[in-house]
């Protein structure tokens, strides 16, 4: 492990299920020095029988935490942030309008389509579809955005255009969530996906108005897992994703009450090969809580 004033780098971990670890072991007495972040995340992995990938950056100081940051993992519904950003980019280029109407057909509905299903037979605007996809992870909305953009390969192309050379999308909802170990389809890495989210939420991929629109939509995300682990008074603009083999992800920017901004890219899956393994949603919040003290340290 290499620790520097500018960053804290921990090599990739494959965290198998060993002996259980109590919460008091993971969350040390605040009066005592915390164990190294690698040890704390390894303990979380053992307790949840999970594989963990993290790429986290304090955007003010560039202090960084990396654990399995370059491991390829299924991206699942996190792609919906890229899809929405691509729609916004085309809107600012005049190639489409956010008010464009899209017909929602019965055949479009997939499992977990809480916003679009009641609208079958009517139309929704592209802006409404972006909101549904980002805030409630509506799967039919995700597919309708993909159809507008030209299919899953358009997400891969968009990723490359913003400097993300690892993310790829190959299939539609809900097939893209199979998350079969070793399957390269529909995968990314914590570093690649996190850097892409940073580009669309803080960079010049979008102009100010469209970037603010994306941030506002994502701040209203109703599925966030990372918020539970952040200090009081913090908000997030994030996108979750979940799928087979316990795959559970959450990627976005966390905003502190004193102007802090943290990029948090957290990707996890079960360390077992059970396609029906339980979601690791509680683990995401615990990872965010473990990373927070590292990012809070002075540069």
TrEMBL record:
PROSITE patterns: PROKAR_LIPOPROTEIN, TAT
One matching Pfam family: Beta-lactamase2
Example GO molecular function: beta-lactamase activity
Start and end residues of each Beta-lactamase class A catalytic domain: 53-268
Assigned keywords, A-Z: Signal
Biological process (GO), any one: beta-lactam antibiotic catabolic process
Signal sequence residues: 1-28
Name of the protein this chain belongs to: Beta-lactamase
Organism: Mycolicibacterium obuense
Taxonomic path: Bacteria, Bacillati, Actinomycetota, Actinomycetes, Mycobacteriales
């Amino acid at each position: 492990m290499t620790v520097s004033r500018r960053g804290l780098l921990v090599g990739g971990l494959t965290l198998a299920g060993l002996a259980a670890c109590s919460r008091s072991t993971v969350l040390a007495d605040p009066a005592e020095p915390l164990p190294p972040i690698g040890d704390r995340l390894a303990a979380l992995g053992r307790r949840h029988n999970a594989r963990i990938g993290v790429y986290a950056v304090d955007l003010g100081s560039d202090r960084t935490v990396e654990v399995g940051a370059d491991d390829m993992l299924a991206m699942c519904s996190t792609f919906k942030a890229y899809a929405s950003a691509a729609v916004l980019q085309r809107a600012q280029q005049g190639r489409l309008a956010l008010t464009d109407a899209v017909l929602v057909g019965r055949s479009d509905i997939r499992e977990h389509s809480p916003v679009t299903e009641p609208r079958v037979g009517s139309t929704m605007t592209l802006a409404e579809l972006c909101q549904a996809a980002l805030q409630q992870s509506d799967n039919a909305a995700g597919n309708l955005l993909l159809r507008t953009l030209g299919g899953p390969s358009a997400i891969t192309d968009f990723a490359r255009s913003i400097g993300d050379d690892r993310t790829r999308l190959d299939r539609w909802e809900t097939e893209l969530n199979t998350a079969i170990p070793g399957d390269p389809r529909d995968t990314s890495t914590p570093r690649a996906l996190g850097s892409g989210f940073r580009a669309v939420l803080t960079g010049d991929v979008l102009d100010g108005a469209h970037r603010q629109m994306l941030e506002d939509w994502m701040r209203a995300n109703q599925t966030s897992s990372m918020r539970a682990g952040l200090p009081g008074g913090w908000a997030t603009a994030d996108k979750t994703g979940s799928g087979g083999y316990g795959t559970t992800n959450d990627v976005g920017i966390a905003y502190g009450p004193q102007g802090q901004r943290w990029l948090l890219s957290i990707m996890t899956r079960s360390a077992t090969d059970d396609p029906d393994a339980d979601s690791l949603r509680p683990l995401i919040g615990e990872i965010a809580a473990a990373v927070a003290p590292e990012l809070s340290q002075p540069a």
